[in-house]
Amino acid sequence: MMFSRLAVASITKRQFSHTVSNATKIAVLGAAGGIGQPLSLLLKLNPFVSDLALYDIHGAPGVGADLCHIDTKSTVKGYLSEYDGLQKTLDGAEVVVIPAGVPRKPGMTRDDLFKTNASIVRDLAKAAAQHCPTAHILVISNPVNSTVPIVAEVFKKFKVYDPKKLFGVTTLDLVRARRFVSELRESDPASEELIVIGGHSGHNFEGQELDNLCKRVQFGGDEVVRAKGGAGSATLSMAHAAAQMTNSLLEAMSGKSGVVQCSFVQSDLYPECAFFSSQVELGQDGVEKVRDIGKINEYEENMLKVCRAELAKNIEKGKTWIAANWE
Fold first, then answer.
1. What average pLDDT does the segment 62-89 reach?
2. Is 203 a catalytic residue?
3. pLDDT, tens only, 238-259
4. Which member of 18, 131, 136, 200 is catalytic?
5. Residue 306's pLDDT band (boundaries 50, 70, 90)?
6. Model's pTM, two decimal places?
7. Which residues of this UniProt protein bind NAD(+) (predicted)?
8. What is the pLDDT of residue 14?
């Protein structure tokens, strides 16, 4: 079974803090797209955000004008590529979130998106490396397994790479798992504390029910693409998940201790996988510690073996691509 992403986390629902000790400029690259618009809305509501800068090849000024009417303190402005718009978006940014890229269509895998999205991510990463080299970078653009290594290689080329500040946003896997498990258990999703490794542990699921649950978590994006009749992909749930990840990072940057979130980061957990998604302890400078996945059963171990082999190929694909396509 092929894993497109691996998410490992244990998290409970948290509300935005009402006591904010510092505020942050956030840049959203791809802000007028299906993920970018609802994500920008959620960030406009976040009290940690003081300045929201939105960039896209079209539509970003309109999104910015719409959001700036919302009655929260943060300022919002949208930029296009003309008149140094990307540089203005990135100047002074402490967090850069990248949902830019083409959406999935019926029958497409994340790998099918690679050629187009790789070029987009490469160019945006180059701009970020030049204009906000110390910012935390959160990559949403699919396939994350390959686009995150592309960003890493770009930052290395500019000699500004900090592995603690590069994140692949895999939070949606966990969000889906919590919801799907709660449906089976007839529970509140907020009460479900899960460890998700493409499968499931900690609850009494087995046999076909367990297989179905694992597959639904893995391929939840396909379910949404089919339901939208090819007219869209998982944009709203992805925006919600990305906002959760961003808020966790902002909490940690503000000085809150004990913040743990799932993310695809540089990792030493498995030698064949330079990046891996697992529980990450966050601090003011980004990743403080990558947690081990803990004890897993035989079913999960077998799935993990398949995942690691496929994941290593995905990572290498991104590194090989950027080496051959720097310009």
1. 96
2. no
3. 898 999 999 999 999 999 999 9
4. 200
5. confident
6. 0.84
7. 30-36, 56, 117, 140-142, 238
8. 41
Percent of the chain with pLDDT over 70: 76
> How crowded is the C-beta side of 60, counted as CA atoms within 13 Å?
25
Token pair 């970003």 is found at 60
Residue 221, marked binder: no
Is 56 a known ligand-binding residue? yes
Tell me 145's DSSP state: H
**In the block, which residue shows the tokens 């799907």?**
180
For residue 59, say whether it is annotated as part of any ligand binding site: no
Pairing status of strand 75-79 against strand 49-55: parallel
Secondary structure E strands in 183-285: 259-270, 273-283
Least confident of 5-9, 91-95, 269-273: 5-9
Q: What strands lie across the sheet with 286-290, from one edge to the other? A: 75-79, 49-55, 24-29, 95-98, 136-139, 166-168, 259-270, 273-283, 286-290
* CA–CA gap between residue 8 and residue 278 (Å, rounded): 4
* Separation between Cα atoms, residue 89 and residue 127, nearest integer Å: 10
Token pair for 268: 């030493």
